[in-house]
Amino acid sequence: MVEQTAYRRLRGNRHRHGPVEHSHAHAGPHTHAGHPIGEHREPHGHSHGLIDDSIKRSREGVRAVLVSLGVLGVGAITQTLIFLLSGSVALLADLIHNFGDALTAVPLGIAFLLRSERAERGAGLFVVAAIFISACVAGAEAISRLIHQSPPTHLWALAAAGAVGYLANFIAAGVRTRAGHQLDSPALVADGNHARADAYVSLAVIASAAVVALGLPVADPLIGLGITFVILRITWQSWGTVRGSQHHH
Q1: What phi and psi values does residue 191 have, to the nearest 5 degrees?
Q2: What are the DSSP calls for 189-246, one per residue?
Q3: Which residue has better confidence, 14 or 64?
Q4: What is the pLDDT of residue 90?
Q5: Which residue has the higher pLDDT, 122 or 75?
Q6: 36 — alpha (psi -120 to 50), left (phi > 0) or beta?
Q7: pTM check: above 0.70
């Protein structure tokens, strides 16, 4: 009778964790495969009492994307209003690029929400395509303005627009690059590098305002063309980053 009771107690304490069945006393703390109970992770990838890493990564990725989208969106809208005043092709190239940069946040945000590495890599390719298209649009407008010249006006406002673009991109670049390294996301790192380079492109808008003020209006479309080549270089670098992540996976 005593043996049967002991056997039932032993059977009652037996339970499974994945493929392993074992027994222990429930009176105190216990471990599984060397992990304390609070840290034990089961084979199907969730943890007890902790936020799952993929959910945490998803939240942090979406937060980084939304913050940078907001900053760039405000900057691009401000630049658009000033472009309507000044008509500067250098500013137009910059704001097209900034709108494109802001929109790249959309597929990246979706990828993080889906918690899909494949979608994230696809978003990285979308980022590269968006940068390339913005370069083509900016280049076409700069060439058109070289042929049909119309110098920009409201030069102080133009210089201010360049400063706005620089600040917006610099802040967005910091948010994206930091999150990209923390979350090991090449797509987010590529987007951060793009925004950082774009910050320096915005400084060219200030240079355009200064040179036009000195009496060289042709400098505006020439600087717009220069910005186009910088954007193409960023396209190539971002393609390298995203392509590297494709091979890595």
Answers
A1: -65, -35
A2: HHHHHHHHHHHHHHHHHHHHHHHHHTT-TTHHHHHHHHHHHHHHHHHHHHHHHHHHHH
A3: 64
A4: 80
A5: 75
A6: beta
A7: no
The tokens for 111 are 């990828």
Sequence length of the chain is 249
Other CB atoms within 10 Å distance of the CB of residue 221? 27
Q: Which of 129, 125, 96 is nearest to 201 (CA)?
A: 96
CA dihedral over 205, 84, 102, 156, signed as positive or negative: positive
Closest C-alpha among 228, 198, 224 to residue 211:
224
Q: Give me the mean pLDDT over the 157-176 stretch.
A: 92
Q: Indicate the domain borders of the chain.
A: 59-243
Q: Give domain 59-243's CATH number out of 1.10.10, 2.60.90, 1.20.272, 1.20.1510.
A: 1.20.1510
For residues 58 and 62, give the distance between their C-alpha atoms in angstroms, rounded to a whole number.
6
In this prediction, residues 201-212 reach a mean pLDDT of 86
Chain-wide mean pLDDT for the chain? 76
